[in-house]
Design brief:
Chain lengths: 357, 560
């Protein structure tokens, strides 16, 4: 009888003591900043089409918050019921592939170019030129309009300014003694963007220069570990100082929350991964799917992406405060389709050289 | 001297003829069909990709297979070390008066494995808690975790409660007279252990060890995240890479999953052979054994403390701190801690619907799995016919292949064009999927309980005039209750934390707990994810405490 009483009073006292500590401002933490309203005379301002009804099924490999915001605004405006299925890219593609003989999805919104390219090659996508097609960044349009990148994310150097006050300017700076044992890179076997970065470097600088760079980086104690999220968390928590190839939107989101991070876009160039959307050829709700795709490329849809720290594919829509616009980002010299095709080989070489110790 | 009558009851065999066929059909449709649907792709190829059988012959695969078997064996050893002493202490000694220990031991099982791995990685990272608290010893711990044995230890911490429950329930049924007779005859403690306790528990232990092994062989979390880092590839790493990383290769994944299935069936066969002998206790009413430890009691408490630190304290310090930290990059201080996240995640537009959905589906599926499991256990008990063996194997098969392969199998089978009516894309698909993956653990628990019932009790009932239903309801069922309750509980807890099937097979727009938590991690909302984990575990603990209280009540009625 006594012991439970003591236990409960102990817990109550602890709770009261801790209640005196910090508290969270809900808006800063939970939701992304509200999207900017488009200019009144914008050519790509959206008008919700009349007379739409029924359902739409979308599979999305993008952050839940972004997908939810897009779906909510579209479905409130048109009255279409949108069935959303979200997950990581791997699970989405596994489910799509397993369902190919009897597809359940109408449209798919992925986070990387290569899988979309594969589906287009297999003839599974519907070619469509959405609303606002003429002003979309032409690099992000797939062959025959089979799939189009509607927003993108850049890879950057993400620095924890509590751990180090030396901010690097380029990939090669990380071979400096100042960053010994302070650099982490996401594992390209788990992170598609890390793999794309290595392939793009090979394409841009040639194999020898790229392997020489990585030789120096590994000699300087670079660690390769985890998917994008865990690698960024590792640096945020302070175990390492810099993420080589950190995804920008996660970092911007953390910076806005108040974390001591700084995002640096490398001077010699980096990769920007467009995030494609496409309609399935056998979709059951093609009209609704086309309407949703139109919304996604309109100023309103693009503004939602920008508010979630993505880079819009419509140049007239501005990025979030603190983020870098596409025109300000130096790109490496690479071609998206080549990177998709050569990725597996480059990965095998990288793993054999550095990860099979 | 009369010759003892042979304990044959042909009447009972006749009674269970029909249910066995129905059960077999159910399991064929529920388990075999999806498995075949996906594994056949290894031979036939899929979607333009060729058959992958040739890949299996690659010599590097032998190393992967050896690694998998080694990992499974290590997990069994560690789980036994963790579970067996505790089961003994909590069943045969006065430590069983401390009921909260039963609840505490289940906490590692309630924790989603990916959260436990993250918590361990957080504890052992450079500059993490291990280093801060223990200095250089902390680094040793970190290095120790990043080895195959360390990985096996973390995996054992998650699964040992299952072995504990099976062993404890079985030890509860061992009559005191067997141990007391040995003591009176002058046997030493070691002799009583090696000649009485160990042989008697072999059969139950083998049931539990079977599941522990195949789960370890097919488990995704730690072997892939830590295994990749330390260069210890196992079969599951290959399967997951083939299924989730571009370029997808289903035939190769199917081929390696077939190897896993073959491994599971081999181990199942070994277990059938080990557990073939039944030991009758004489059918008299039995008392529960009590062994007094004397000064060795300290060792018992020390063991429990060690297990608790390893399996509960270390991960949960990480999880709780993570749930309360506002800014990850700032040092630990009261200003950086808050309880607000617990409130934030329980908002209706937050994770509340995910939590309630998961709880509801797990409840229904656990009950369904338990009913099915009791049927299976009764049908296969002490029978060696082909259909009984087939049912037994099918009941264990869902655990042998990685969950993602099973999920793909469900999609292939239930989403096939030729299916006239299908539950796919509805809540029923999720219930079917959950029931199938709960089945192995539930069946093992009930089978172990069934093996503790002496057939003479049932013979006595029949001789006294009880029909089949009366004898089941008043003799078998009450005696099976500990196994049924443990099985239901394990099933419910798995359902709450299950991630793969919940991600792939759920109907669109339905939130479930583990996918929600993972999605929060992916978006960088670490505190929210950890807070929801704590809430999920707290909710599960409440259910556990309620059920434990009821079980104790029943157990006291039976054993006095």
């Amino acid at each position: 009888m006594i012991r439970p009483l003591i236990a409960v009073s102990g817990v109550a006292l602890t709770v009261m003591a801790l209640a005196g500590c910090g508290s969270v401002d809900a808006p800063a933490n939970a939701e992304a900043p509200t999207p900017a309203a488009p200019a009144a005379d914008s050519a790509i301002a959206w008008e919700a089409p009349e007379g739409l009804e029924g359902e739409l099924t979308i599979y999305s490999a993008n952050p839940q918050g972004l997908t939810d915001d897009l779906v909510k605004e579209f479905s409130d405006a048109t009255g279409v019921t949108v069935n959303v299925f979200t997950g990581e890219t791997g699970k989405i593609t596994a489910k799509l592939d397993a369902e190919w003989e009897n597809p359940q999805a109408d449209m798919v919104y992925l986070a990387s170019w290569a899988p979309a390219s594969k589906y287009a090659d297999a003839g599974r996508t519907l070619s469509y030129q959405p609303f606002g097609y003429d002003s979309i960044n032409p690099e992000w349009i797939g062959p025959d309009d089979a799939f189009i990148g509607r927003d993108g994310s850049a890879l950057a150097l993400v620095v924890n300014t509590n751990v180090t006050d030396q901010v690097p300017a380029d990939w090669a700076d990380l071979t400096d003694a100042v960053y010994k044992d302070q650099v982490i890179m996401p594992d390209p076997r788990e992170s598609g963007t890390a793999r794309d970065l290595i392939t793009a470097l090979v394409s841009s600088q040639g194999e020898d220069a790229t392997w020489e760079l990585f030789d120096d980086l590994f000699d300087n104690g670079m660690v390769v570990q985890g998917a994008n999220g865990p690698a960024l968390d590792d640096v945020t928590a302070g175990s390492h100082a810099v993420v080589l190839g950190g995804v920008d939107y996660s970092a911007y989101s953390a910076v806005d929350k108040g974390e001591a991070l700084q995002v640096v876009l490398p001077a010699s160039g980096t990769t920007v991964s467009p995030r494609p959307i496409f309609i399935l050829k056998d979709a059951q709700n093609v009209e609704n799917a086309k309407a949703f795709e139109d919304f996604m490329f309109s100023a309103e849809g693009q503004a939602i992406s920008a508010a979630n720290y993505m880079i819009p594919s419509q140049p007239e829509v501005a990025v979030a405060d603190g983020a870098q616009a596409l025109s300000d980002i130096t790109l490496l010299d690479y071609d998206l389709d080549d990177v998709a095709a050569n990725g597996a080989d480059v990965l095998d070489q990288f793993v054999e050289r550095y990860l099979n110790s | 001297m009369t010759t003892p009558a042979a304990p044959v009851t042909p009447g009972r065999r006749r009674r269970v003829g029909d249910p066995s066929l129905g059960l077999l059909l159910l399991l064929l449709v529920g388990v075999a069909a999806p498995l075949i649907a996906v594994l056949v792709r290894a031979v036939t190829g899929y979607d333009g990709q060729p058959s992958a059988l040739g890949e299996l012959a690659d010599p590097s695969n032998l190393r992967i297979l050896t690694n998998t078997v080694l990992l499974g064996a290590m997990v069994v050893v560690f789980s036994t070390l963790l579970a067996a002493p505790l089961a003994f202490l909590m069943s045969w000694t006065t430590m069983r008066e401390h009921r909260w220990i039963d609840v505490a031991i289940m906490i590692p099982f309630m924790t989603p494995p990916y959260v436990a791995s993250l918590a361990w990685l957080d504890f052992t990272r450079a500059g993490g808690l291990a280093e801060q608290l223990f200095g250089s010893v902390g680094r040793l711990i970190s290095d120790g975790i990043h080895t195959p044995a360390g990985m096996a230890l973390i995996m054992a911490c998650e699964v040992f409660p299952f072995l504990y429950l099976i062993l404890r329930n079985y030890l509860d049924t061992l009559p005191a007279s067997s141990d007391e007779m040995a003591r009176i005859s002058g046997a030493s403690a070691w002799q009583r252990f090696s000649r009485i306790l160990a042989p008697l528990t072999t059969s139950s232990f083998s049931l539990g060890a079977l599941i522990v092994f195949i789960r370890a062989a097919g488990e995704f979390g730690a072997p892939v995240t830590i295994g990749n880092q330390i260069g210890f590839p196992v079969l599951v790493s290959k399967v997951y890479a083939d299924v989730t990383i571009d370029p997808l290769d289903f035939p190769s994944a199917a081929a390696f999953s077939s190897v896993l299935l073959a491994l599971g069936v081999t181990v199942w066969g070994a277990q059938q052979w080990i557990g073939r002998k039944q030991t009758p206790f004489g059918g008299r009413a039995s008392r529960r054994t009590t062994v007094s430890l004397g000064p060795a009691r300290i060792a018992g408490w020390a063991w429990f403390a060690a297990v608790a630190i390893l399996a509960i304290v270390i991960p949960y310090v990480s999880v709780l701190l993570g749930a309360m930290t506002m800014l990850r990059s700032q040092p630990l201080s009261l200003n950086n801690l808050t309880f607000d996240y617990f409130g934030i995640v329980l908002r209706p537009d937050g994770g509340l619907s995910a939590l309630l959905n998961s709880a509801g589906f797990s409840l229904v599926s656990a009950t369904l799995a338990t009913v099915l499991g009791v049927g299976v256990a009764l049908v296969v008990a002490k029978r060696r016919t082909t259909s009984a063996r087939a049912i037994d194997m099918l009941a264990v098969a869902p655990d042998t292949v990685p969950a993602i392969v099973l999920a793909i199998g469900f999609i292939f089978f239930w989403n096939a064009r030729w299916m006239p009516a299908t539950p796919y894309n509805t809540g029923w698909m999720l219930i079917i999927a959950y029931t199938i993956i709960f089945l192995p653990m539930v069946v093992q628990n009930v089978k172990s309980a069934r093996s503790g019932i002496d057939d003479r009790l049932l013979e006595a009932a029949t001789m006294s005039g009880a029909g089949a239903w009366a004898s089941f309801r008043r003799v078998t069922l009450p005696l099976l209750v500990p196994g049924i309750v443990s099985g239901w509980l394990l099933a419910f807890l798995i359902g709450i934390r299950e991630v793969v099937l919940s991600s792939l097979v759920r109907p669109a727009s339905m939130d479930l707990l583990s996918p929600w938590i993972i999605s929060e991690f992916d978006q960088g909302h670490r505190a929210e994810a950890m807070a929801m984990t704590v809430i999920g575990v707290a909710g599960s603990t409440i259910v556990l405490v309620a059920i434990e209280a009821w079980r104790r009540h029943q157990s006291e009625k039976r054993f006095g």
